[in-house]
Amino acid sequence: MNTQQLECFVRIADKLNFTKVAEELYITAPAVAHHIINLEELNTSLFIRTSKMVKSTEPGSLFYSEAKDILQKIYMVEKKVKKLASQKISILRIGCSSQVELEILEIPLIKLREEFPTVYPQIIIQDYFILKSLFDNKQLDILISTKEMIAEAHDYIFKKIKNISSYAIIAENSPFAKEKEICFIDLYDTPLTTLHPRFIPF
């Protein structure tokens, strides 16, 4: 089954005339008939044909709406592809390593679409250190991270997207227990147990 077969079928169902459809598509009437025969290899007859008339069968009538819908979707996709081909589009490669980061991107991406309609974001979700390697090798345009995680990198430009809070569960006898806030740098020499987001029970 291909688009030309579907096109022939839909036009015949509309006009009930093989010759007129052949003229519209600039092919021969036998070629039109051949397309319909190929479709009828689905083991069902789509048209009743005599020397004087053409009539859709019940399966043909059911298939008509589906075939027309398929063709409309194909035409819409072709139209979009042609439109994109005529524009100078660019891909913005963005790396993030968690669902939280992905949610943070929602509003900025909406604004990006409004201000730069020819820029298409490509979101890459991966482990942070893999993303960091991609970024270092110029395979990412933007890396979503905390400022502390890239503090040692002096050749990066850091732009704040949103303030977020991270929480630590601390034992009562920990030296951090009485602190109101803890910075990442405070934890550099501290043994930590981290939870994978999939296994956090809340």
UniProtKB/TrEMBL annotation:
Pfam families in alphabetical order: HTH_1
PROSITE patterns documented for this protein: HTH_LYSR
Entry keyword annotation includes Manganese: no
MF-aspect GO terms: DNA-binding transcription factor activity; transcription cis-regulatory region binding
Keyword set includes Ubl conjugation: no
Keywords on record: DNA-binding, Transcription, Transcription regulation
PANTHER family cross-referenced by the UniProt entry: HTH-TYPE TRANSCRIPTIONAL REGULATOR, HTH-TYPE TRANSCRIPTIONAL REGULATOR GLTR
Family, as annotated: Belongs to the LysR transcriptional regulatory family.
Annotated protein name in UniProt: Transcriptional regulator, LysR family
Native species: Thomasclavelia ramosa DSM 1402
Lineage summary: Bacteria, Bacillati, Bacillota, Erysipelotrichia, Erysipelotrichales
